[in-house]
Fold this protein.
Amino acid sequence: MNMKCIHSYEGRTTFFILLISSLCCLFPIAIASFEEVEDETPFAYTEERGKGPKEWGQLDPHWKLCDTGKLQSPIDLLSGKRQVLPSLGKLKKNYKPAPAVAKNRGHDIMVRWEGDAGKMSINGTDYKLLECHWHSPSEHTFNGTRYQLELHMVHVSAHGELAVVAIVYKYGRPDSFLTRLFRRMKTMEHDEKTLGIFNPGDIKFGSRKYFRYIGSLTVPPCTEGVVWTIINKVRTVSRDQVKALRDAVHDGYETNVRPTQSLDGKRVLFYTPRVNSGSS
C-alpha cells in the first residue's frame, strides 16, 4: 500500500528547494553533538518510569531541545500543508558493501558500518552512511496511522550535518535485509557482534517518492537540523522479525517510539516524479 500526498501546490518550487539547503547550512554542528545516546539508562519511553519523553528535556541540561525545540521529530507526515515538488529531485544514493558490526544498545538494535559503506547526496552535499537501526512501531505517522516498524539509515556530511532516511513496514513477507542480519547473528542478545562485510544496498526502498522536512533526532539529545527523508512506500516485515527485534532489547524498551511532535510551522515537502517519467 502506498501513501499518497493529499494536497498539491504549484509554483515557487525553487524557493522551497533553496529553503531546505539554507536550513541545512544553519546547523553546522559537530558530529559528536549529533550522536544518539548509547546508554538507554538515562531515559525511557514510558512516562511511569519518571524518565519518559515528557521529561527528557529536564533529565540533562544538554537535552533541553527535547522540550524547547521547534524542529522536533517525529511528526505526522500527512498533517498540515505539503508542497509537492517534482523538481526536488530523485534520491541519489550509492551504497556499497563494507565491514559492519551489530550492536544491541538496549533501547534498539543497530548495524554500524566501520568501513566506507557509500553515501547519498542531497542538494549537492554528500552524506556518508554511518549506521541503521529500528523502532517498533513506526515513529512517523500518516494521518495518525502508525505502522509496525521503522528503519532509520543515519548519514553524516563532512561538516557534521545529519541526514536520515526512514522506511516504514507493515506485517507481511519477511524483510530481506533483516533476514540476512539474523543469519549473521545467531542471537541478538550480544552487546556487539562482528558481521563481516555487510551490504547496505540490500535495504530496499521500493519507491522513488519521498517526504522531506528538517527535524531532529528522535532520542536525546534531540539535536535539530536533521534532514529527514521518509520513503513513500510501505514495505513488509514478518511478525517473527519484529518480535526478534523487540525481544532483543532491554525490558521496558520493546516499544521504542517517541510520540509525534507538533509541526510548529515545519514545511513538509513531497517528491514525486513527473507523470510522464513512469516512476513509482
The chain has one domain: 13-272. The radius of gyration is 18 Å. Confidence is low (pLDDT under 50) at residues 1-34. The domain at 13-272 is CATH 3.10.200.10 (Carbonic Anhydrase II).
